[in-house]
Amino acid sequence: MDVVRNVNWDSFAQFRSFCKRVMNFVNEIMKGYWKVWIFRTSHGLVAIGSLVSFIVVMAFAYLYLFPSVPPVVHSYGISNSSSSNSSSYVEKCNVFEGSWIPDESYPLYNASQCPFAERGFNCLANGREDMGYAKWRWKPKNCDIPRFDVRKVLERLRGKRVVFVGDSLSRTQWESLICLLMTGVEDNKSVYEVNRNKITKKIRFLSVRFRTFDLRIDFYRSVFLVQPASVPTGAPKRVKSTLRIDKLDDISTDWIDSDILIFNSGHWWTPSKLFELGCYFQVGKSLKLGMPITTAFKKALYTWASWVETTINTNRTSVFFRTFEPSHWSGRHHNSCKVSRRPWLRSWGMDRSPVSDTIMNVVRKMAVPVTIMHVTPMGAFRSDGHVGTWSDKPSVPDCSHWCLPGVPDTWNEILLSYLLP
Ligand SMILES: *[C@@H]1O[C@H](CO)[C@@H](O)[C@H](O)[C@H]1NC(C)=O
Ligand SMILES: *[C@@H]1O[C@H](CO)[C@@H](O)[C@H](O)[C@H]1NC(C)=O
Ligand SMILES: *[C@@H]1O[C@H](CO)[C@@H](O)[C@H](O)[C@H]1NC(C)=O
Ligand SMILES: *[C@@H]1O[C@H](CO)[C@@H](O)[C@H](O)[C@H]1NC(C)=O
Ligand SMILES: *[C@@H]1O[C@H](CO)[C@@H](O)[C@H](O)[C@H]1NC(C)=O
């Protein structure tokens, strides 16, 4: 598995300790209530009074625990206020605020007929029996995502180069986009990986060409976006490798010549993927042993942002950054994976993520247009969409990656909706 299980930044942990505090509080109140009830039942008024206050406290505790749809501040998308008169639906509505509704016309493809859906994500082929998880459509609050029209999209993408950069969740989106587009291609031999490479977890570069449309869809694995480096001399023994947070990944030169450029990063910025493996941060020649991961992540994003500003011609290239894709690990150690049959009705606080907040804060300050694909809120509900044990390694449950077809198709429908007028 290629994404860390104990996503330590997951807001869920905070939420749980918070839960515990509130539950303790409620517990105390309840103890008090029972005492009153046992010793003073004759004093009916007191009993009723304490019952009323108990209900009031419970109501407050409930509201505190489950605030109804917290107002999220969005820096992207413009609300459909009267000030906006653009014809583009994206600008009239925040497409990332909405809900999942059942739709029998989904899924949009069959992963078993798509050679680029890797076996590990093809849940149905790996024995998942309920297909309900693939039959949900994302419905933004104030608009609709245009229905996926493969012919139109393929024509729009003719002659273009689309580049995905990031971790395995970018690879999933890359696979999803290829599978979506293949439904509009008659001869599936005309779609091929240019180096005849197989899709594997560690592969650095994959490029699929749609010959008829002179279209390339590429994936670059760069889980941190910045450059891994060797250990400077004189470093303490525990330092096994470093990340140059002031320098973008060397393969970034290959990303420049593109029309659509989609990034993600986040799942690897955890102690278990860094410090516990002896990987520390470095700026120039200087080791930053004490630098917290959150700080390093922010600095790496600023490195990325200035690379985009100085290197990418945004007149040609549309740049996107996808925010944190929620995982649904549960249990005390955050290592239990129970895939539900239906989406959660609540987001349980997972619609926010410090990773996403950092990304939005950095992008907001950029001098060139970059679109944030804020997939965190929509993913929060989709506890039913993960691979679980229906992967190529059923012994290792997976509540980080998503089944294909599934949630990543929605990311692509939204991506494509930005490209179509
Ligand atoms: C936004 O658009 C929806 C439907 O198009 C409409 O019902 C709603 O009142 C609009 N909101 C504002 C603030 O204009
Ligand atoms: C739309 O906005 C532009 C300026 O942003 C303005 O010139 C134009 O008149 C507006 N159109 C309508 C129909 O309001
Ligand atoms: C997907 O395709 C495979 C192979 O062609 C077929 O066996 C399977 O029934 C299809 N699944 C669905 C849900 O249509
Ligand atoms: C190629 O396309 C045909 C017809 O759409 C389909 O039946 C077949 O499964 C595809 N083959 C592969 C390897 O995807
Ligand atoms: C992008 O377009 C604008 C306006 O057309 C122009 O001023 C600017 O120089 C262009 N930038 C590049 C890098 O071509």
TrEMBL record:
<feature type="domain" description="Trichome birefringence-like N-terminal">
    <location>
        <begin position="91"/>
        <end position="144"/>
    </location>
</feature>
<feature type="transmembrane region" description="Helical">
    <location>
        <begin position="45"/>
        <end position="65"/>
    </location>
</feature>
<protein>
    <recommendedName>
        <fullName>Trichome birefringence-like N-terminal domain-containing protein</fullName>
    </recommendedName>
</protein>
<dbReference type="GO" id="GO:0005794">
    <property type="term" value="C:Golgi apparatus"/>
</dbReference>
<dbReference type="GO" id="GO:0016413">
    <property type="term" value="F:O-acetyltransferase activity"/>
</dbReference>
<dbReference type="GO" id="GO:0016020">
    <property type="term" value="C:membrane"/>
</dbReference>
<dbReference type="Pfam" id="PF13839">
    <property type="entry name" value="PC-Esterase"/>
</dbReference>
<keyword id="KW-0735">Signal-anchor</keyword>
<dbReference type="InterPro" id="IPR025846">
    <property type="entry name" value="TBL_N"/>
</dbReference>
<dbReference type="InterPro" id="IPR029962">
    <property type="entry name" value="TBL"/>
</dbReference>
<keyword id="KW-0812">Transmembrane</keyword>
<comment type="similarity">
    <text>Belongs to the PC-esterase family. TBL subfamily.</text>
</comment>
<dbReference type="InterPro" id="IPR026057">
    <property type="entry name" value="TBL_C"/>
</dbReference>
<keyword id="KW-0472">Membrane</keyword>
<dbReference type="Pfam" id="PF14416">
    <property type="entry name" value="PMR5N"/>
</dbReference>
<feature type="domain" description="Trichome birefringence-like C-terminal">
    <location>
        <begin position="145"/>
        <end position="417"/>
    </location>
</feature>
<keyword id="KW-1133">Transmembrane helix</keyword>
